[in-house]
Design brief:
DNA polymerase, domain 1, ten-stranded mixed beta sheet, 12 helices, TIM Barrel, alpha/beta, single chain, two-stranded parallel ribbon, disordered C terminus
């Protein structure tokens, strides 16, 4: 049975055409699903009854199931969504006076093993389908509507996983996010964050125009090799050149994400070096106070040290902001998402052995 959440509008048109239906029927169904949040074909009243009956036989609209919800004192909420195979992922809703941002996952876990990220330390199970990716937005809007809350206005691929390692499914979900018949989000309201998968960045540049964020976290290759192991394959210079090509000429900038780790990457010299490597890249820097998690080996830089780091970047002419931590009391802040799944890399087992003082 076809889950219609898995189809963007072109794919939906083809699915309906194969059944002898005209393309506008697909557009009607896309609007019912994504703009009205409907999952009952009987409620799609502008469809003929025979078509509704056929849809009930051949298709479904099935999103993730809410396993639990946590609410932060600052208004942030974190949903634990259960998938059909029993794996669970986390999605975070962050309300602001002028926007409502949803931080979504693209994979069950993450294979990149960044040392400062809770998700990465949990290991990796599989990629999410397009239905499971867009389903997070679809479910969030349904849940918010039921409470009379503001609908999602911005989406960031900053949850579990590396989006560029699941690009086929991510792009299908992005097409729905930007589709006028679905969520109609502009390119400035959808942001993909990557650790720097260069071939994926090059493909993304050919097929999308959404906003881009780079998880950089170090100004030199030696340090980044330790923090972001992917750097051993794609060096900083190559990643930044791919980012520069992505944003092109004009006013667009790539957001550089830089987690502040006490006595690791937060010295004055690190700030000067960061400004130097970013000199030729249209960018702005987002300084992220480190968010702790169980067994984390790092500590958060002090507020004074973060301020000093920011001031040095300012002095070099680098636009810099310090991200305000949201949802920390429910482990919903940047780098804290963990989900619940079987790790196919056996990373959890290795970490457990290391913590007990043994050898993996």
């Amino acid at each position: 049975m076809q889950n219609l959440l898995d189809l963007d509008r072109p794919a939906m048109v083809e699915w309906f055409r194969a059944r002898g239906e005209k393309p506008f029927r697909a557009q009607q169904v896309v609007k019912w699903i994504h703009q009205q949040g409907v999952d009952d074909f009987d409620l799609m009243t502008n469809l003929a009854k025979p078509l509704r009956e056929a849809l009930k036989r051949e298709a479904c609209i099935r999103g993730p199931v809410v396993a639990s919800v946590q609410r932060s004192a600052d208004g942030t909420r974190k949903w634990l969504f259960e998938l059909t195979d029993g794996n669970r992922i986390e999605t975070v809703y962050i309300p602001e006076p002028d926007r409502a941002t949803l931080c979504i996952s693209s994979q069950v876990g993450c294979a990149l093993n960044c040392s400062f990220c809770s998700t990465a330390q949990q290991g990796f199970n599989r990629n999410l389908s397009a239905a499971e990716i867009i389903g997070q937005l679809w479910m969030a809007n349904r849940l918010l509507a039921a409470e009379g809350q503001a609908q999602v206005s911005n989406v960031v691929f900053m949850g579990m996983g590396e989006p560029l390692l699941n690009l086929d499914q991510v792009l299908r979900a992005v097409h729905l996010m930007q589709d006028d018949f679905a969520y109609a989000l502009s390119k400035r309201r959808v942001t993909l964050s990557t650790a720097g998968v260069v071939p994926g960045l090059q493909r993304l540049a050919r097929e999308s125009d959404i906003s881009l964020a780079l998880s950089l976290h170090a100004p030199n290759d030696a340090l980044r090799d330790e923090l972001v192991p992917l750097n051993r394959k794609y060096r900083i210079e190559a990643v930044l050149q791919a980012c520069k090509a992505y944003v092109g000429e004009g006013r667009r900038r790539v957001t550089i994400e830089y987690v502040m780790l006490a006595d690791v990457n937060d010295s004055d010299q690190h700030a000067h070096d960061l400004a130097r490597v970013l000199a030729q890249v249209p960018s702005k820097v987002n300084l992220i106070p480190f968010n702790p998690f169980p067994a984390a080996r790092y500590k958060r830089s002090s507020a004074r040290r973060i301020e000093r780091f920011r001031d040095i970047l300012y002095a070099h002419g680098v636009v810099t902001i310090t991200r305000r931590t949201r949802g920390e009391d429910i482990d919903a802040a940047c780098g804290q998402l963990a989900g619940d799944f079987e790790d196919r890399t056996r990373r959890r087992q290795r970490i457990s052995v290391e913590l007990m003082g043994g050898a993996a």
